[in-house]
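User: tokens in, sequence out, please.
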């Protein structure tokens, strides 16, 4: 459980999201379960349930969903129901994948503003490897702590990678990771 709390808290620092959810997916049982949830201070976790709506789509396609406006229509299109809290005005959902297997979904939501997220938010979330390395073994937990323990803006300062930073999403070279972080930070006004 500690890994989910670490990831969730770091995501709160990086992204303009009042709601952050991390759910794991059990393919055999076809169930999702909350591992981290935060909505304006509420940390209510929901138990196992069948995936529906946006999360079901992400699980089936293994592709992100990113909506910055018109959420009322998207709720209808995807048959999405709000189980707790308020309906978002902007939302990003990203698949967590280990190897080629779907392991869960991360959701960032802003309930006050449309256009709260940018394509670079989606890219940064993917780049940091959050969908691929939320796992329980100690080595990956330590690597996650090293990566998330650094300020994302400092990691890409002047377009170079800070020495000692390890990249968890191994398929992406560190230079690409640094560039994604630099672009994200420029878009959100960090330099």
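Assistant: Sequence out:
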């Amino acid at each position: 459980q500690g890994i989910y709390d670490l990831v969730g808290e770091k995501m709160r620092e990086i992204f303009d999201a009042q709601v952050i959810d991390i759910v794991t997916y059990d393919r055999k049982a076809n169930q999702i379960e909350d591992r981290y949830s935060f909505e304006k201070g509420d940390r209510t976790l929901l138990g196992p349930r069948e995936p529906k709506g946006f999360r079901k789509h992400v699980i089936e396609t293994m592709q992100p969903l990113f909506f910055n406006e018109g959420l009322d229509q998207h709720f209808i299109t995807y048959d999405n129901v709000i189980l707790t809290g308020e309906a978002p005005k902007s939302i990003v959902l990203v698949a967590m994948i280990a190897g080629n297997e779907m392991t869960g979904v991360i959701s960032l939501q802003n309930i006050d503003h449309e256009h709260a997220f940018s394509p670079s938010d989606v890219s940064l979330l993917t780049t940091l490897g959050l969908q691929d390395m939320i796992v329980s073994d100690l080595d990956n937990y330590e690597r996650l702590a090293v990566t998330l323990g650094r300020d994302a803006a400092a990691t890409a300062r002047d377009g170079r990678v800070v020495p000692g930073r390890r990249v968890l999403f191994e398929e992406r070279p560190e230079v690409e990771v640094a560039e994604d972080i630099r672009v994200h930070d420029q878009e959100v006004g960090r330099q």
